Amino acid sequence: MSGILSTHESARPIYAAGFVAGLIVLAVIALLPEARMPLPVIQPFLPMYVTTVFLIDGMTAYLLIIQYRSSREPFLGSLAGAYGFVMVVAAVQVLIFPGAFSAGGLLGAGPQTAPWMWLVWHTGYPVFVLAALAVQAMRLHAEGSEGLRRVSGMLMIGGPLAALLLAWIVIGGRGRLPQLIAGNAYHTRADFEAWPVVASANVMAMAACLWITRLRDLLSLWVGVALLTSIGDAVLMLCAGARYTLGWYAGQLLSVVSSSVVLCVLIFEFAQLYDRLLTSSIGLTERALYDGLTGAFNRGYFIEQFPREMRRAVREQTPLSLLMIDVDHFKSYNDVRGHQMGDACLIAIVGAIRKATRRPGDFIARYGGEEFALVLPRTDSAGAKVMAEAVRAEIRELALRRGEMALGLVTASLGIATFDPAVDAYEAEELVRRADLALYQAKHDGRDTARTYEMLVSV
After folding, report:
1. Where in the chain is the domain with CATH 1.20.1070?
2. b/e sequence 437-455, b meaning 16+ C-beta within 10 Å
3. pTM exceeds 0.85 for this model
4. Least confident of 193-202, 229-238, 409-418
5. CATH no. of 299-458
6. Which residues are CB-neighbours of 288 under 8 A, at least 6 positions away?
7. What CA–CA distances, in Å, run from 311 to 197, 304, 453?
8. Range(s) for CATH 3.30.70.270 in the chain?
9. For residue 182, what pLDDT band results from cuts at 50, 70 and 90?
10. Does residue 109 carry a pLDDT above 80?
């Protein structure tokens, strides 16, 4: 199941949503007594407000569709239809609202068109949320149903289409619509049931959200907050009595909040997803480059990186040395002490090698089971010998005994080969071969020693 639909792992999201919901309820209660108080007429306010809602709901619908396409969760696609519905209605509302782009509104709008579109907006949104919640309820009892995905797709497309159809009906029936507003004052009649319809749709959607989802997941939790905010918006607008009053302005702002909360949750979810992907990517990169046991680079990294170091040595005309390090009698140590102690031994060996190497350009790779390669850029043969002795000494200082009764310590043999671009002209494989030959000679000469390839050639 999608992360945003997963059950809460902690109570923090519930506390956060409860805090926001509490603030909204307190704000509505505080503003209700002064809802009819007239405020200055700010003509640019409405186009700015509706444009904001259009953008927010458009982004919300888009992100829900992305989540739906990746997770195939019907609730996400269905909910995208609700926000697509509001996006289209908001676009129409800003065009037809008197004073936004023309004195009487565009598209042939009449005096009742804007308030009727507000009713369409604040009734259609909870109705489409109800439909999405119904899909979710069926989803909980019919997991993986292909039919629900088809319904979800229809709602996803149907939201914007329904908004266009209702806008066409409202604009086309401008002369036949019941009167809702006279001048800037809202007009209500006892025989007109539009206002209760708005309230009923929002309350039913809120109740369904609580009943069906139990607010158990992050998305449902904040959809509940959005519906609560929408109820507060409707209450303030209906109590305002006229445009450009405190209740009217506050209702518009609450509408922005209602649109924003789900978008914020989706952005938070995408941020969490990006963080998880980045962490996974770093983990995959580390597994691709590093040996899982010792933490040294692995053989794949050595095979890729060592030729680059050789080319750099040629380009900069500086020497490069390679030390092949093999733990002496490691098989017998493993057999006597056990594999866990053998693993601990290899980890300690890598620690000792790192202790001996202090330059940032040097790197160690696990070349085989108990064999390691130490690359020393800008290091000639004399410097490599010094480093080899330092490594050998650090390994001896570990004082790892080969057996419970044996006095012998774990030691290492080292083979050294140096590439000098001033006199040498061969590939990386040849330097590895030379270091291996020197290592073989160190083993032959009694172990716990270091030999250079030059020694073999001079013999």
Report:
1. 3-283
2. bbbbbbeeeeebbbbbbee
3. no
4. 193-202
5. 3.30.70.270
6. 300, 301
7. 78, 12, 21
8. 299-458
9. low
10. no
